[in-house]
Amino acid sequence: MNTGQLEKFSIEYYSDDQAIFTDNFIYRKMKNLNNTYDIYVLTLLNNQFVWNKTNDCFHVDDIQNSNITTENFCDLRCIIKNNNNLTIYRIYENMITDYIDLINCPNEKQTHSRRQWNKLNPPLDINELQTMSLLDIPSHIDLTNEEIEEENQTETYPEGIPLDINFEPLCGWENLLERDPPDDINFKNNKDVSFNDLELNIPNVEYRYDPYDDEWFTKEEFLDYYGGLVEWNNQDPKLVLRREQYYQFSETFKHLSNKRFEFLFNKYEKTFV
User: Fold this and answer.
1) Interval 215-239: pLDDT, tens
2) Using the 8-state DSSP alphabet, how is residue 132 labeled?
3) Between the CA of residue 115 and those of 22, 23, 24, 33, what are the distances in Å?
4) What is the distance between the alpha carbons of residues 127 and 133, in angstroms, rounded to a whole number?
5) pLDDT value at 257 more than 60
6) pTM assigned to the model
7) Which helix (H) or strand (E) holds 63?
8) Local structure of 31: helix, strand or coil
9) In whole angstroms, what is the distance from residue 58 CA to residue 13 CA?
10) Can you point out the beta strands (E) in the chain?
């Protein structure tokens, strides 16, 4: 591969409103949460077409001898039939001029090979077909392949607590959404909580829930058992509520594209005080 071809496959070379065609793959560039860009490849995964994030940027073995072209997404439409058959149309002034068929990929984890553009003669009015934008195809990220950047592992909060220690992983908490205290909880010498002329008596000792053994403990008991207060601080009621809501939000809207999900999540996050 010559130097010019390598430069042409630099991620900065392309715009995120372009589809990138090689002899074997179709790529797109998408902005991530770190304000940089990732490369996604059009893939048939679990009998569904998705833009699948590829950690090795472009496939090196694909670009060595490929004829590389780009198309603006606004000039492309597509139709998905029977989940695993995709036809991409190239349009000009609302008329279909060319098309590519992606049919019957033998391996659901393998990206469809690109077919050559076929001329449509005579051209067809795009309004006569029920098509969708390639941008509406959902994106997919395999979290098991994601790597945490080394500099993020040493980033700290003002209190000096490393990021990777201060927050527990959601996947490790089986009872994340079960936050009701047990019926037989013993507040020991706490004052009773009661309403009397709109006055509320708060227990003088705070208990927090330990998700690892489904019990409630005081700050001193957390310190004595764990040898620190990281777990106690993690179980602050405000943090627990946010985890709960963020988890439910991500499960509800995980089908959206990265851009739409990030936009909605940023708006949603601002509703928390």
Assistant:
1) 999 999 999 888 889 999 999 988 8
2) B
3) 10, 8, 8, 33
4) 13
5) yes
6) 0.51
7) helix 60-63
8) strand
9) 12
10) 18-21, 26-31, 37-45, 48-54, 69-72, 76-81, 85-92, 95-103, 118-125, 139-140, 195-196, 199-200, 207-210, 215-218
